[in-house]
Amino acid sequence: xxxxxxRTKPSSPxxxxxxxxxxxxxxxxxxxxxxxxxxDTGMVTIYWASACKIIFVIVDWIDDVIAGTLSEHTKSKLxxxxxxxxxxxxxxxxxxxxxxxxxxxxxxxAVQFIIYYIVISILVENANTIFYINYNALFPTxxxxxxxxNKAASYKHLLEIVAFILCYFFxxxxxxxxxxxxxxxxxxxxxxxxxxxxxxxxxxxxSDDIKAKKEVQKQYSSIKMLKEVLKNKPxxxxxxxxxxxxxxxxxxxxxxxxxxxxxxxxxxxxxSVVLVCLFLxxxxxxxxxxxxxxxxxxxxxxxxxxxxLPLGLCLLYFPNNFxxxxxxxxxxxxxxGGLLLTPDMILAELIDIDKIxxxxxxxxxxxxxxxxxxxxxxxxxxxxTSVLSISLGYESGINPGPNPDFTFRVAFxxxxxxxxxxxxxxxxxxxxxxxxxxxxxxxLKRIDREKTTEININxxxxxxx
Length: 465
What we know:
It is built from 18 helices and no strands.
């Protein structure tokens, strides 16, 4: 641990990104498969599962604020964030394994299944919140320049997509071909996750986090900051826009097994390949988006991605077999790539602006407030799923209703496109309302660079004399 604290080299962007690979691998086992696991087996109906999501999101809103507050008040030789990252990484795999520890043969009543599903979902999201808020709070501190942030974000999301591909490709194969169960797969992914976090911790310079804490001694106030955030239109509008994209992602990863089953009529390895096509083209697009960001900036790249999103999602209405499903998901992938890569830089810029305005360093607190706003996405996803279930008759795998093909065709090809379009509208609004703050930040950075250059020149002159 002493070596970590006295690390002289800059934090490794690849090492930092490896932590995100690990957490993406284990959490996608929960987000991508828990809904189909619980509803297809009939343990809960899809509208009860959606109601449970709304409940645990409300609880998680409170968790977000508490996690951010605790992080900002933490005093440790390891900085403000690392102790919480370590704490969160211990519980994430445990709770995810417990999600799949029960099955249809468990001696539970219908009400007990629902209660268990709510409780375990709350516990998983609580551990995720602690990890993600503190992990993301390190990003602007460890990588202060736009160039470094672009590089770190590229590595982070490249490895994130690799984790997605591995999870969605191998999980059905491990289930169907090797006969493993979800709980055992969770143990395997959990071990990989813990190894990745260990490597990440060894590769970052925690002294940057400690230094950032010492730079600003102003007292942190949760209530005061909440008022300031709610008055910050760019911050709020950005997170509302992003929540629509997160809602799209939530629906895609949680309902895609049913979409494959009822619309494309595929399962097993073919189901894996359909989603891998999405993530593979997404993965290929990341380096391309990185180049686009260098040329036009990350805000414009983010907006272009949002405009592409609803146009691509409309295509999901039309596939009816394995081949057409692969083609359409491959077309959609690049828009997802831009929307995954750019938010890290936008949020880091919003944190920089906040620091200039209020002269206080509060990365985790702002991250928790942003997460608080973005949780709207889960409610969107739950409401959409419930409305479609009630209106079109799908309840569970045991009672799929008269036309499950049409139900999931509408869910993916129409409702998702509408959600994506709403996100695009808010993204356009964000670009307009944030213009003044972004121009101010860029001007201040230009002045700071000129001062740094002048100091370096004077040092050279002094050494020459």
